[in-house]
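Protocol step 4 of 5: obtain the predicted structure for the target chain.
Materials: sequence only (see below). No template structures provided, no constraints applied. The aim of this step is simply to have a reference model before the mutagenesis design in step 5. Sequence pasted as it appears in the construct record:
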Amino acid sequence: MASQGCGVPVRFMTYAVLALWLSLAGWPAAARQGTVVLATDDLSSRFEIKDGVATGFLADLLQQALAGAGYTADFRIRPWVRCLEETRSGAVDGMFGLYRNAAREGQYLFTEVPLDIAEEYIYIRKGVPFDGVHWRDALRGKRVGIVNGTWHGRQFAEAESQHMFAAIVSVNSYESLIDMLGAGRIDAAFATVDTMHDALGRAANADRIERVEPAIDNLPVYLAFTRRRDLTAVRDGFDRELRKMKEDGRYDALVRHYPH
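Step 4 output (structure tokens):
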């Protein structure tokens, strides 16, 4: 057997160098063993970790579709901004519950089949007159709040591009958003109904806040993979299985089991 001068076999050295290269490239070890490492923020009952077990609509959906494609899901809980960063860098294989937009298309490899539909709402302090149909006029020159790293659809983006708001205040959590709104430091907050519903259940100022009807947008949410390595086969396999689930009734069964 050919060897280096130090007596270490060349084949062993080749494998060692390959392993080191994969590590430096940022590949999660689990991804090389049929496991897909996925990040999320665990802020909605649509996905929760209870006693170390992932539960909720998205947990069951992702596990079933990935299993059908031959993969196992390994969930990691992160703040939302860190989910975005780690997916971009390749520290994790992907994240879920993400809207698609032009800027994100170049950063992430999205599934073609959406996981769910999220409803975007405006939240205000109770007792404040507000026209939900003409919300742009109602919020012209006002201070609004969002959570860091979130995007709230084209309706919100258009209002932002037209400089309709006096300020857009970004905070680190939905609880902070609720506190600021209840204290009058912002005039309105933008959030999905699922995430805000659960946050209001934990917030001290929940009784001061109300949701404005109707929803300003209904947006599909997706599973998104890193572009730091080629995960097209994983994406395509997931899409194939999710389509099957929607065709054979398993998806609808999960929807009924986990109502909004």
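Step 4 remarks: Residues 232-248 form the longest helix (17 residues). The two ends are 64 Å apart (CA to CA).
Proceed to step 5.
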